[in-house]
Design brief:
The protein is an alpha+beta fold. Helices cover about 20% and strands about 30% of the residues. It contains seven helices and 20 strands. The longest helix has 13 residues. The protein is globular and about 60 Å long. The mean pLDDT is about 95.
Length: about 350
């Protein structure tokens, strides 16, 4: 498929630069894949009307950390170190990072914070990716706490603020699951009060983990959709979560899956004799039209960038033409797009 089939024109003023005043005051577009015609647009809090007792909400409990560090070289020139993830099995505090500007720095160089060396640049992996090293875990934690910035996506054209520390994070975020450098933004719209209402109606919440990496914003540059690849990210579907999903399915309940990260985690899990299996590994599943969804019944998602793997994923679920028509309607009704924007429920 030609990537141009997944393009659309978005007025720049519809890219949300700030979150809604309250999480559940965002708007919700409801699309029924079985029917054509205009979608419904409701307050997000009305999502509760679509879930029934016995259904389950599947959410990503990853927690975003302040991954963006601004340092200086010994020359005084500025350099950005954007942490991606710790190198598995490393005996020291070795991390994969995006370093910018990448061409000017050299292996073995230390970058400084207020005159104190803090991060050593080890090996250039190409495309701005470097292995870097901190002197210790405690030193790394201190640097992030003092100098780290919320890793807002590039289309939010402002610096991070105190508000972002709270709002660029879901209410599901678990302090024991720190590791994302981009938020699972479909979860932004849920409040604790809304979750309590769902629980009171007999709707289970099931948690999984996918540590979202910067590759979530990686544009599809290949001319053919099939030639693109997605970056690997760590995902975990615990035994208890897999068991809960199987119980819901056995009882005829439906899975309302929050976000493309949760969708990719579930669809990466093995199915053995009709049973979803636990998962704990790096995943790089690229969902595109033709994918046969095995677990996901309904999807809650935000509005995604043109020609992105996320728009391709939701098109695989709901149909490309239906999805582009929905985006056209969303633009005409001035819904807000991308991370801090409005939401979509695909039935």
């Amino acid at each position: 498929m030609d990537i141009e089939l997944f393009d659309y024109d978005l007025p720049r003023d519809l890219i949300a630069q700030h979150p809604s005043r309250k999480r559940d005051e965002s708007r919700l577009m409801v699309i029924d894949r079985r029917r054509s015609g205009l979608a419904k647009i409701l307050p997000f809090s009305r999502i509760i009307d679509y879930l029934q007792p016995g259904d389950a909400l599947v959410v990503n409990n990853t927690k975003v950390f302040k991954a963006r560090l601004f340092a200086k070289r010994a020359s005084g020139a500025g350099v950005e170190v954007f942490l991606v993830r710790r190198v598995p099995d490393a005996v020291d505090e070795r991390w994969l990072a995006l370093v910018s500007p990448s061409r000017r720095v050299k292996p073995g160089e230390w970058v400084e914070f207020e005159g104190t060396p803090g991060v050593e640049l080890l090996d250039n992996q190409g495309d701005g990716r470097w292995y870097v090293r901190f002197t210790s875990r405690s030193a790394r934690e201190r640097l992030i706490a003092r100098y780290g910035h919320v890793p807002l996506p590039h289309y939010i054209r402002r610096g991070d603020s105190a508000q972002d520390i709270r709002r660029y994070q879901t209410v599901f975020a678990d302090s024991n699951k720190v590791g994302a450098v981009a938020a699972p933004t479909a979860g932004f719209h849920f409040t604790r009060r809304l979750l309590e209402q769902l629980d009171a109606r007999g709707i289970m919440k099931i948690e999984l983990t996918l540590h979202v990496g910067p590759g979530t914003f990686k544009p599809v540059t290949a001319e053919r959709v099939e030639d693109h690849t997605v970056d690997p990210e760590f995902a975990e579907l615990p035994v208890a979560a897999a068991d809960a999903i199987n119980r819901v399915r056995d009882r005829g309940g439906r899975l309302f899956v929050v976000g493309t990260t949760s969708v990719r985690t579930l669809e990466s899990a093995r199915i053995v004799d009709g049973r979803v299996q636990p998962l704990s590994k790096m995943v790089d599943l690229y969902i595109r039209p033709g994918h046969r969804f095995q677990v996901v019944d309904h999807m809650i998602t935000n509005f995604h960038l043109p020609k992105s793997s996320l728009l391709i994923l939701v098109s695989a679920f709901a149909g490309r033409e239906r999805m582009l028509a929905a985006y056209e309607q969303a633009i005409s009704e001035c819904l807000r797009f991308y991370s801090y924007g409005d939401a979509m429920l695909i039935l």
